[in-house]
Amino acid sequence: MNLCIFYFSGTGNTKKIVDLFSEQFSLENCNVVVKQIETCLNGTDDFGLDQFDKIGIAYPIHAFNAPSIVLEFARKLPALKQQKDLFFIKTSGEPLALNNISSLKLKSILKKKKLLLTNEYHYCMPYNIIFRHAESTAYKMYEYAKRVIPYDAREILTGVPAKLPKVFCGRFLAWIFRIEHWGGRWNGKKYKVNETCIHCLKCVQACPMQNITFDGDKFHFGKECLMCMRCSFRCPQNAIQIGLFNKWKVNGAYAFKKSDDQETHPKYCKKAYRKYFERIDAKIAKENCSADRKE
Ligand SMILES: Cc1cc2nc3c(=O)[nH]c(=O)nc-3n(C[C@H](O)[C@H](O)[C@H](O)COP(=O)(O)O)c2cc1C
């Protein structure tokens, strides 16, 4: 089977999950091509959808929606002559049911291109805004994703549909929250660089929208910000202030390694993620049980 996964990842979480899917598909003897959405949008290729049996789109949830770059990409995809299966891979900081509405707009754009959603999967990964998760939680989230992705990938390959539960008034709520697309662009113009900056220009090079320029003296932040956090998250000096949301800034990559550190919000995190981890344990137990019965 030939598969293609188009992904956008602001700070690397979604890319890590896409890599796990890609490894699993390869183990199952599939040809898998992984393409970065921002590179596709800057290039001139026609995305070559016809050569693939199934198409995946992966993205981080931003304000209960897909980031605007993902919607823009979907609008630019050519309409197919024949219907194809589509799957979504999403990451978010929390397992909130409201996150399920994030794909509604994307789904309807792609339906018009004859890409029909059959499977969607959602993985909790550590926050890149609001608060920094403990390394121990980040590690646990990633380990759980690693454990369940082989089963999720097999569902996609064997044609077992998997959809996330619907949310009441989801389309309307998603429409309201899409104000973040506009708000992000507005807030992006308020970004500032402080005096600790060493002018490494990593932010300029990393921005998926080429929205940051340096004139030799000052940094300029344009009006195309996606609020993906890549610039401030990766800044080695933690020198970028992210406008109105500066108190929510998270700086520095997660190690995703075993750790004994404690959550800053231990009670909340324990409660918020318990059901998410239990759901994964239950899915794996169920799949193993039915595999044993078949043997
Ligand atoms: C602007 C913005 C909005 C976000 N909104 C949500 C949200 O609505 N729900 C949620 O659970 N996480 C939200 N997050 C957290 C990210 O979805 C999460 O950390 C994700 O794994 C980041 O993936 P990436 O590293 O591939 O960009 C948001 C992050 C950003 C930067």
List keywords for this structure.
295 residues; alpha/beta; Rossmann fold; Alpha-Beta Plaits; 2 domains; 5-stranded parallel sheet; two-stranded antiparallel sheet; 10 helices; 9 strands; globular; binds flavin mononucleotide
Description:
The protein is an alpha/beta fold. It folds into two domains: 2-174 and 273-294, 3-Layer(aba) Sandwich (Rossmann fold); 190-248, Alpha-Beta Plaits (2-Layer Sandwich), CATH 3.30.70.20. It is 40% helix and 16% strand. The chain is built from ten helices and nine strands. The chain has a five-stranded parallel sheet with strand order 2-1-3-4-5, sandwiched between helices. Helix 1 packs across helix 5 (135-158), helix 3 runs parallel beside helix 4 and helix 5 (135-158) runs parallel beside helix 10 (266-294). It is globular and about 65 Å long. The model has no long low-confidence stretch (mean pLDDT 95).
What's the number of structural domains? 2
Order of helices and strands: EHEHEHEHEHHHEHEEHEH
Q: Roughly what percent helix?
A: 40-55%
> What would CATH call the class of the largest domain?
Alpha Beta
Mean pLDDT, to the nearest integer, reads 95
Tally of contiguous helical segments: 10
* Cross-sheet strand order for the largest sheet: 2-1-3-4-5
Q: CATH topology of the largest domain, anyone? A: Rossmann fold
Quaternary state reads single chain
- CATH H level, superfamily name of the largest domain: Flavodoxin domain
Q: What's the count of strands?
A: 9
The bound ligands are: flavin mononucleotide
The structure class reads: alpha/beta
Determine Rg (CA atoms, Å). 20 Å
- Unreliable stretches (pLDDT < 50, length at least 5) are none
Q: What is the makeup of the main sheet?
A: 5 strands, parallel
Beta-strand portion reads: 15-25%
